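Narrative of accomplishments. A recurring question from our advisory board has been how the design workflow behaves on a single, concrete structure rather than in aggregate. To address it, we present the structure tokens for one chain from the evaluation set, followed by the sequence designed for it. No filtering or post-editing was applied between the two.
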């Protein structure tokens, strides 16, 4: 019967096409923000400080970063091979689920030893093939970049001479200058001079000899300090700077000589404690145990307060092992603009561990002495975690992870409504049913559903428009709910819908068999179910969409979404196949089973209408359905002595259902919108009817980007944190959180000092789309948290539904970061 009914659904094809066309005309392609070309975002170059090595440098634009594990190098010059590359220490993100990912910002200089055959000792040029990959902070990740760079090589030096003899050669650099000419800081220096021996160097000995520094065999000229210790200061975000030193091979900086100071700070702006990376410990006969840096380093300079620009004075000092020169203290004053810097991202507390020899002196508010510390792990949001997996994990691991994520969505609004639909399709096969046929029907449904998720997901990521969200309008939802009503009435046996005989004959010839046609119908229902019944915004889905939008890798992104759909479909396969084995073949029992599925179809229609109708109307419709169900179950039928146990059971169940339906009608009449507590607050002690007052979070409604900016500005003036909730009437997960999570007393208490904003994107108009695009969201539910400076704390962003207890823990963790 259902087979014929589903064939008749083809008559709706034109209507469906018109609906989809209408929706598409109301959508727009939200292009991602303009990005720098790869060569500008990550500008590579080669340099060489000695004939035996080279330095590969990438200048990284503000707001971009590169992955260490994505670097690789290969010599294309015959006779020249590469030694093991030495990388500077990067910033490590450590997540218990996704492992460690090391990244670099601003600049990275990689030291690569060169190994030359004797036959090419006089080679003048090297061709180096490089491979690298990086991302932008806004979420876009570039494909791997392959570049071939060339470098003019220095000639290998002649055999070394005795250093004393070399020093006596005409034109040789004299290293016997008075020590104070090298070490003594200027009068304006704020750093104490390095302690020196009171004994002047012995006659004929250089300063390097006196300090025990060797390696003067090569006739190297001393480099300018700006070349030996290339310095740059850039903005990481609006409350963090990055100081970068590119320390050339053969040179080093003293850890205890770093000092930072804000010049003429704006009101409320002050440096926080600076933590230096771990250095190399050495013993010096004059300075004792010291810590040095002989490789490029990055130092983060956190500060409090707000300002559009900041001027920082950085002080440091170092030496050259190649020439024996120790440079005077260097002072660099640099102004950094923060206008275009991204918002600051809070991280968990840092647990500092000071090494021996660190200077832990107390600093003033705007002058900070650096100490050695281990950086803390940064919190990563769930959707960003899935993006990281797509970027870093192997192909099979990614697919398996998304498959498991799909399984985890089994009994959520993403999957649960599809169970009665598929079961109804199988029950409609009647006597022509079997376990094998049920399996293939279920498989057709699941494959169509998973394929739809993949295709629609790729389209959404590339265009910026979510087709599932676009289909959540009253006309489409009303039409689909009406289709469920028609299907349910057919299940009750009121009528059979048939196509004209000529059309039915042609379709039969095309499908060649009834079973093929049935599987085609099941596939169509799977497609429509994915598009309309279960629009689901979850962390793995958003992670895949972000990855596709960033990298344009539709293959991995699309297959990940397909794996997600397959994971969601596994329970459907099990239930559908089991239904084919368990359901009776024909007779009175089969009619009752089909009637049961008819009731489920009507319930699905009401569930669909919940997205566009007020809850009181839904309670009213549910009450009517419950009363009809109770009567159909025999709640009002008379019993006699010959009545079987099953008949008595169904009569009792019918009576209970009738009573529940009556309670729903009373609740709807009194304005109650709860299906769980229909009579709550309906009767006061005096007998008068009053509406129930439910304790829950109270949101202030905002509209569009301008409305949000105004609300954030007000919260900033009041020094309050902000929570922004994206909501829509058709978003089932949003309503689950509204009636569950947001009514929890612990959640209410945790957010009592937080400004609660809500953006109702039900209309999905231009203002709603612009607001979603601003935060890179494809639809609700989405919950964003802003600190007291009205800057979003990205790692705490929530996409999808979250129960009360984990949500409350999430809120508590966020509030700890802003105290």
């Amino acid at each position: 019967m259902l087979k014929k009914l589903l064939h008749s659904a083809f008559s709706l094809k034109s209507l469906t096409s018109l609906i989809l066309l209408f929706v598409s005309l109301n959508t727009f392609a939200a292009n991602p923000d303009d990005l720098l070309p790869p060569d500008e975002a990550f500008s590579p170059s080669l340099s060489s400080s000695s004939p035996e090595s080279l330095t590969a440098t990438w200048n990284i634009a503000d707001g971009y970063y590169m992955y260490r594990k994505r670097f690789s190098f290969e010599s294309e010059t015959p006779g020249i091979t590469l030694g093991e590359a030495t990388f500077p220490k990067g910033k490590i993100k450590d997540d218990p689920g996704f492992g460690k990912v090391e990244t670099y910002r601003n600049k990275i200089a990689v030291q690569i030893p060169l190994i030359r055959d004797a036959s090419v000792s006089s080679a003048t040029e090297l061709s180096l093939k490089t491979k690298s990959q990086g991302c932008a902070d806004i979420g876009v990740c570039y494909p791997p970049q392959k570049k071939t760079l060339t470098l003019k090589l220095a000639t290998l030096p002649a055999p070394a001479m005795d250093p004393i003899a070399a020093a006596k050669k005409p034109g040789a650099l004299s290293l016997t200058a008075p020590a104070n000419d090298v070490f003594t800081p200027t009068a304006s220096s704020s750093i104490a001079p390095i302690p020196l021996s009171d004994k002047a160097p012995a006659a004929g000995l250089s300063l390097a000899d006196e300090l025990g520094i060797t390696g003067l065999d090569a006739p190297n000229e001393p480099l300018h300090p700006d070349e030996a210790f290339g310095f740059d200061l850039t903005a990481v975000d609006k409350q963090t700077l990055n100081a970068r030193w590119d320390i050339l091979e053969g040179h080093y900086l003293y850890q205890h000589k770093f000092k930072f100071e804000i010049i003429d700070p704006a009101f409320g702006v002050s440096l926080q404690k600076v933590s230096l990376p771990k250095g190399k410990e050495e013993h010096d006969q004059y300075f004792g145990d010291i810590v040095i840096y002989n490789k490029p380093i990055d130092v983060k300079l956190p500060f409090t307060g707000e300002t559009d620009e900041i001027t920082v004075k950085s002080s440091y000092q170092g030496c050259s092992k190649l020439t024996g020169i120790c440079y005077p203290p260097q002072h660099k004053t640099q102004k950094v603009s923060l206008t275009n810097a991204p918002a600051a991202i809070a991280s968990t507390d840092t647990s500092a561990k000071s090494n021996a020899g660190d200077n832990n002196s107390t600093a003033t508010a705007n002058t900070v002495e650096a100490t050695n510390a281990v950086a803390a792990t940064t919190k990563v949001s769930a959707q960003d975690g899935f993006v990281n997996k797509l970027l870093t994990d192997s192909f099979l691991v990614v697919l398996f992870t998304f498959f498991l994520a799909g399984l985890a969505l089994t009994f959520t609004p993403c999957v649960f409504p599809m169970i009665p639909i598929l079961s109804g399709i199988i029950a409609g096969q009647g006597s022509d049913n079997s376990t094998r046929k049920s399996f293939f029907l279920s498989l057709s449904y699941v494959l169509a559903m998973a394929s739809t998720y993949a295709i629609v997901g790729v389209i959404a990521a590339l265009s910026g428009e979510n087709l599932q969200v676009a289909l959540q309008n009253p006309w489409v939802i009303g039409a689909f709910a009406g289709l469920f009503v028609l299907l349910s009435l057919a299940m009750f046996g009121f009528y059979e819908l048939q196509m004209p005989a000529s059309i039915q004959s042609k379709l039969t010839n095309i499908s060649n068999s009834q079973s093929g046609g049935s599987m085609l119908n099941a596939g169509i229902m799977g497609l429509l179910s994915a598009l309309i019944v279960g629009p689901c915004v979850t962390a793995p889905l958003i992670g895949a969409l972000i990855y596709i939008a960033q990298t344009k890798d539709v293959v991995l992104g699309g297959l990940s979404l397909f794996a997600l759909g397959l994971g969601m479909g596994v329970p459907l396969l099990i239930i559908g196949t089991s239904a084919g084995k368990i359901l009776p073949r024909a007779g009175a029992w089969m009619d009752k089973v089909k009637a049961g599925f008819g009731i489920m179809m009507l319930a699905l229609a009401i569930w669909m209408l919940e997205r566009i109708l007020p809850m009181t109307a839904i309670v009213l419709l549910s009450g009517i359905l419950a009363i009809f169900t109770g009567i159909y179950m025999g709640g009002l039928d008379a019993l006699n002595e010959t009545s079987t146990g099953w008949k008595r059971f169904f009569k009792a169940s019918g009576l209970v259902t009738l009573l529940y339906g009556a309670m729903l009608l009373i609740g709807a009449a009194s304005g109650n919108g709860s299906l769980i507590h229909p009579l709550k607050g309906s009767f006061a002690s005096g007998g008068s009817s009053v509406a129930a007052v439910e304790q829950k979070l109270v949101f202030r409604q905002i509209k569009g980007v301008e409305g949000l900016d105004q609300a954030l500005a007000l919260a900033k003036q009041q020094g309050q944190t902000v929570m922004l909730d994206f909501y829509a009437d058709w978003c089932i997960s949003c309503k689950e959180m509204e009636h569950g999570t947001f009514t929890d007393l612990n959640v209410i208490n945790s957010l009592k000092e937080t400004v609660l904003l809500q953006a109702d994107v039900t209309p999905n108009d231009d203002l709603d789309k612009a607001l979603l695009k601003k935060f890179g969201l494809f639809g609700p539910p989405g919950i964003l948290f802003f600190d007291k400076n009205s800057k979003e704390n990205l790692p705490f962003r929530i996409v999808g539904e979250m129960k009360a207890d984990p949500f409350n823990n999430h809120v508590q963790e966020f509030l700890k970061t802003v105290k």
